[in-house]
Amino acid sequence: MSNIYLLIYISAWCFLTYSKWKRKKTMSASVFILMCYSFFAIMSYLLYNDPEQIYVFKELRFFPFLYLFVMLYIASIPIQKFDSCKVYSIQEPTMWKLNLFASLFIFTSLLSLPALINNVQKIPLLLLDSSVGLTSYRESIEIAQANKAGSISNLPAIINGLYSKLGAFLLFYYLTLEKRNNWIIGGLIYALLSWMLSFIVSGQRGGVFHTSISLLSSYFLLRKFLSERTDRIIKRIGIITIVLITLPTIALTISRFGDESNSTTNTQSSLYYYMGQCNLYFNNYGLNNNGIRNGDRTLTLFKKAVGFDDVPMNFWEGREKYPNLYIGDEVFSSFVGDFTIDFGPILAFFLFLSFTLLANRHTKLNNGIIPFHRLILIFIILNVCVDGAMFLFPYAYMGNLTLIFYMLAIFFFKLDYNQQINKYKLYGKV
Q1: Which member of 11, 106, 145, 312 lies 3.0 to 4.6 Å from 318 by CB, making a disulfide possible if both were Cys?
Q2: pLDDT tens for residues 353-388?
């Protein structure tokens, strides 16, 4: 019955994808989400039926798939609503403020240029020597473990990390403008590429996937506002970029998961596992994980702020605190799984429903015009829906700091928007 349940789950997402595609007749943000969900479901099927049986899962049940399907769809409703509305334009923020905001990301990226130049020599070695990727990955893990206390030792790198996903959104927004700042656009391209390269040279595939998802999410979200010429150029450059990023990523995968005797088979199984495990682990443990974490992973800093003391600040501490759980964040169970393991399935359901209702309220259009700060919120939701469906909640533990940063960015540009509205009212323009 396990395969039947999997096929039902795949069919449901594929049907929704086809239905949305048939209505939209184009690749929109909502179609992109549904295509990702369909793809991850198919990878789950391939993983579960992998003849090598490197990764073994328990028998699958129907209800966890039904629960996961409903939760993923609820989370995507703000994106579905945005796509269904007739959005004609974006209410621009004050450009000097936006330029200043983007320049901080570029500046902190430029500070890491010497280190990037020093490490980029590893990329040819990664393609030629299968052991380089694994060695780099182990070194990065050792460094992370040495700094697991979470001390702020490299402020530019931290600021750069806060911008990592939002930087992709900023890049594509600048590309929608008629009067473009090519210096800012060039700087953002450099910042994003250097961010991805930093993960490649340290042997970490996750950062490459996260940034790639952010770029794709930004593109499909803002595609309707791009000129036809710009869209064509982006597609051409995008294909070249995908090839250039894919080659070292594949080499990295072979390095970490292959061996001399059966590297192809092991690499193939690892790709199935990487992209398909979320649905299977959620089905096995998402609704019954032998306990809950009481929000320790998803609301770390918020719990600290209200006075809770025994709150783990990273995944090492989290794993030490909850040894009773069947699974933790050492495997992927999707962002839905993160919340059900944190709060239980009932409370998680109401949290998702409440957030969706709140998000719909704060992403309303004004006569077909969406303010810039509301578009940021839609991007964050889109990124969580796609990134989190393959991995986990992307803003867990100290990632709460990134979420707070995004909230401050939304508030900053909302104030800017309110000031513009009040100015127009003062001069009788509205």
Answers
A1: 312
A2: 999 999 988 777 767 788 899 999 999 999 999 999
